[in-house]
Write a structure and sequence with these properties.
It contains twelve helices and eight strands. By secondary structure, the protein is of the alpha/beta class. The chain has two domains: 174 residues, Rossmann fold (3-Layer(aba) Sandwich), CATH 3.40.50.1400; 153 residues, Rossmann fold. Helix 5 links the parallel strand 3 and strand 4. Helix 1 crosses helix 2, helix 6 crosses helix 8 and helix 9 packs parallel to helix 11. The longest helix is centred in the first third of the chain and has 27 residues. The relative contact order is 0.14.
Length: 339
C-alpha cells in the first residue's frame, strides 16, 4: 500500500494583476458553498462584483505580496516542506481555488501510484465555505480520477487539546504583559451558512446562548467552534473575562453575517479608551490577505484613528515547529488507525 498526504489551503491569485485576481475571485465566489444564492452567483457576481472588486482586491494584494509570491502560498509551501522533512510519506499541497489546483495535484498523486491518501484541510473550524468545500471537491476528483483509492480526511481540530496548546503557546509568546485586550478575530460567514449547516434546522442562532448548550449541531456549527477555540485558549492563557473579545471579519454583500464585526469592535475599543490591543486570527493557520492587510493594516488604522495607541497582529501558526509537529502526529494517528 502506497500512502501519501495532501494539505489543502484556500488559495490565492497567481499575481496581483487585475485579470488574475478576477479569475481567482470568479472561481472562489462561484462556489455554491461560498455564495449559496444562485441569483447572486449567476447575475450579481458577473455583472457587478467581478467588475468592481478585482481592482480593489488587486491593490490590497499588492500591499502584502512578497518577492516569492502570495504570502498564503509561500507559507503553505514552507509548511509542506517542513512536514516532509519529518515524515517519510510524500506530502502534497493543493489549493481549493487557484493554483496548484486540487485536480492537478490528484492527477500527480494517481501517477505516483498512491493507494491510500490522508487529506488535511488546513482549517481548524468547520464551515461549508472552507472545510466542507474542500471535502466535496477532493471527493469529486477522487471519484473521477481514482475511485478505488482509499481516502480519509482529518476532522476539524478546533477543540483538539494538542492543537489548542500549540495555539495558546504561540499567542503567549507574542502577547506583551501590558496588553489591554486580546481580540480573537475569526473569518466571518453569513448567518445563513450557520443555519444550512445545522442538521436539526432548529438550533443554531435560535437563542442568544445556543452555542453554549450541548447539541449535535455543534459538529458542523462554525460559530460554536470559533467560540470554543477562543475560550479554550483563554483558559490556557489565564486571561480574565474583561481582557478578551471575539469578533468576525471579512463580510461580503449585505446579508447578515456573524457578529460582532471586527472593524466595528476595533472602533469601539478605541473610543472606549482601550489603548493597547493584540489581534489573533485563529481561523487561519497561514498569514494571508485577511490577516496581513485587513487586520494588520486596515484594522490598525481603524483602532488608531479612534483613540488606540498600540496595535499588533499576532502571527498565525505559519511555520511554527510545534504546529508542524502537530500535523506529523495527526499523520501518525491516521496510520495507526489503518493498521
Amino acid at each position: 500500500m502506497s500512502e501519501a498526504i495532501l494539505l489543502v489551503n484556500l488559495g490565492s491569485p497567481d499575481s496581483t494583476k487585475v485579470a488574475d485576481v478576477r479569475r481567482y475571485l470568479d472561481e472562489f465566489l462561484s462556489d455554491e458553498r461560498v455564495i449559496e444564492k444562485a441569483f447572486v452567483r449567476k447575475v450579481i457576481l458577473p455583472l457587478f462584483i467581478l467588475n468592481t472588486r478585482p481592482k480593489k482586491s488587486a491593490e490590497a494584494y499588492s500591499t502584502v505580496w512578497t518577492d516569492e509570491g502570495s504570502p498564503l502560498i509561500v507559507t503553505s509551501v514552507h509548511q509542506q516542506e517542513k512536514l516532509q522533512d519529518i515524515i517519510p510519506e510524500k506530502v502534497n499541497l493543493a489549493m481549493r481555488y487557484g493554483n496548484p489546483s486540487i485536480s492537478s495535484i490528484i492527477e500527480q498523486i494517481v501517477r505516483d501510484g498512491v493507494t491510500s491518501l490522508f487529506v488535511i484541510p488546513l482549517y481548524p473550524q468547520y464551515a461549508m465555505s472552507s472545510y466542507e468545500t474542500v471535502v466535496v471537491k477532493v471527493s469529486e476528483e477522487i471519484q473521477r480520477q481514482a475511485p478505488d483509492m482509499d481516502v480519509d480526511f482529518m476532522q476539524p481540530f478546533y477543540n483538539d487539546p494538542e492543537y489548542l496548546n500549540v495555539l495558546a503557546d504561540s499567542i503567549r509568546e507574542e502577547l506583551p504583559d501590558d496588553t489591554d485586550t486580546l481580540l480573537f478575530s475569526f473569518h466571518g460567514i453569513p448567518e445563513s451558512h450557520i443555519r444550512l449547516s445545522d442538521p436539526s434546522h432548529a438550533h443554531c442562532l435560535c437563542t442568544k446562548d445556543c452555542c453554549e448548550k450541548a447539541n449535535p449541531a455543534h459538529a458542523t456549527c462554525y460559530r460554536h467552534q470559533c467560540l470554543s477555540t477562543a475560550k479554550a485558549v483563554v483558559e490556557r492563557l489565564g486571561l480574565p473575562e474583561d481582557k478578551y473579545f471575539i469578533s468576525f471579519q471579512s463580510r461580503l454583500l449585505r446579508d447578515p453575517w456573524l457578529t460582532p464585526y471586527t472593524d466595528h469592535t476595533l472602533e469601539r475599543m478605541g473610543k472606549e479608551g482601550i489603548k493597547k490591543v493584540r489581534v489573533v486570527c485563529p481561523a487561519f493557520v497561514s498569514d494571508c490577505l485577511e490577516t496581513l492587510e485587513e487586520i494588520a493594516e486596515e484594522g490598525k488604522e481603524i483602532f488608531m484613528e479612534n483613540g488606540g495607541e498600540n496595535f499588533g497582529l499576532i502571527p498565525c501558526l505559519n511555520e511554527n515547529p510545534s504546529w508542524i509537529q502537530y500535523l506529523a502526529k495527526q499523520v501518525g494517528k491516521w496510520q495507526q488507525g489503518k493498521r
